[in-house]
Amino acid sequence: MILDQLIGFFSSDMGIDLGTANTLVLVKDKGIVINEPSVVAVERERYGSKAKILAVGKEAKEMVGKTPGNIEAIRPMKDGVIADFDMTEKMIRYFIEKTHRRKSFLRPRIIISVPYGLTQVERKAVRESALSAGAREVFLIEEPMAAAIGANLPIQEPKGNLVVDIGGGTTEIGVISLGGLVISKSIRTAGDKLDMSIVNYVKEKYNLIIGERTGEEVKITIGSAIQLPKELSMVVKGRDQVSGLLSRIELTSEDVREAMREHLKEIADALKMVLEMMPPDLASDIVENGVVLTGGGALIRGLDKCLSEIVRLPVYVADEPLLAVARGTGKALEEISLLHQLTNEE
User: Fold this and answer.
1) pLDDT of residue 346
2) Which letter does DSSP use for residue 296 in this model?
C-alpha cells in the first residue's frame, strides 16, 4: 500500500482518449500533452511476419497511401474497437513513453475512454494492452460519460444531460443523470464513414479516384450539414478512373453535403431513437437543457442547426469539442471516489 502510494507520487497519472482517428493523452496537473493520429507505420520483413515500428502518430499518418510494398500504415482501432491488438499495445506504449520521456521506470495509473457497448472481450483487450504497455492500474470509462464531464455538464445532479460524441469510428449518445448513464446508444457511423462517403461520391459523380486522407481534408475544409450563406469550394486532385490520367476538379460544399447526407441522417435517427426511449421527467430536462455535441464531427459546419431542426430541441457545440473526452478522463482522475463510481471499479 505504502509502495503504491510512493509510486503514485512519482508517476504521472494519465487519461487516454483512445480514438479511431486520433489519440489524446492527458497528464494529471499538466493537461493534454499529446494529440496525434491513431496510426502506426511498420516495415514488414520480406520473409516472415515480424514487423519493425517505423513511426507512430503524425509521422505515420503522413505515410498513409504513400508507402512502398514492404511498409504498411496501420490504424489499429477500427469502428471504435481494437482491430489489431499488437499494434494498439505498441501505440499505447509509444504514447506512454513519449509522455514520461523515459522507458519504463515508473508505471502510471491510466484511465481510458471506450465506446459504450464494448463487449467484455473488447474491454479486456483494451485493459490488457494498456497493462502490457506499462500501466500500473487501468480504469475504463464510457465515452459519453467522459464527453459529458469534459463538456462541463452537471453530471452529478438529478437532472438529465444529453451528449452526442461524434468521433472517428463511432457516434456515442448518452443521457446522464446522478453520475450514471441512464440511456446510451453507440452507432458505427462517424467521421471515417463521412470521409469514405466523400471518396465514393467523387468517384461516382466525377469519375475521380481520391484517397481517404483527401476525403477527410475535403470534409474539414468545405464540409457542411446545412446550406451556407456563401457556399465554399476547393480543388481536389486525383486519378481519372476512365482515362487513368491524373486530373483535378472543383468540389463545392453542396457536393460534400450531398455526399454526407445519408450518414448524417443515420446520426440524427439514432438521436431521435434515444429521445423516444427517454422517461418523461428526464425528457423535460432535455427540453430545457438541450443537446451538447462533442468530438470531431461536432465541427462540421451547421451540424448543430441541422440536428436542432430534426429533433426540435436546442443543440449546442461544446467548447473545443475535440478535447472533451480527454478532458473528461482528466477530471475523473482528479477525484478517486468519482473515478471508481464512473468506471464501476471496486
Assistant:
1) 41
2) G
- Neighbouring-strand partners of residue 174: 163, 184
Category of 113 on φ-ψ map: left (φ > 0), alpha (ψ -120 to 50) or beta: beta
Distance CA 68, CA 115 (A): 34
pLDDT digits (tens, 9 = 90+) for 93-116: 888 888 876 544 568 889 998 888
Query: Which residue is listed with cell 427517454?
Result: 278
Q: Which residues contact 255 (CB under 8 A, 6 or more apart)?
A: 201, 202, 205
Q: What is the pLDDT of residues 168-200, one digit of tens each?
A: 989 999 999 988 889 999 999 999 999 999 999
Question: How many other C-beta atoms can be found within 10 angstroms of the C-beta atom of residue 11?
Answer: 18
Q: How far from chain centre, in Å, is Cα 188?
A: 11
**Residue 340 — very low, low, confident or very high, per pLDDT cuts 50/70/90?**
low
DSSP character for 170? -
In terms of DSSP bridges, do strands 22-27 and 40-44 run parallel, antiparallel, or are they unpaired?
A: unpaired
Q: Please tell me the total number of residues recorded for the chain in this structure.
A: 346
pLDDT at 337: 60
Residues in CB range of 66: below 8 A, 6 or more apart: none
Helix (H/G/I), strand (E/B), else coil: 71: strand
The C-alpha cell of 281 is what?
421527467
Per-residue cell: 190: 462517424
- Alpha-carbon distance of 141 to 35, in angstroms, equals 19
Is the entire prediction scored with pTM above 0.85?
yes
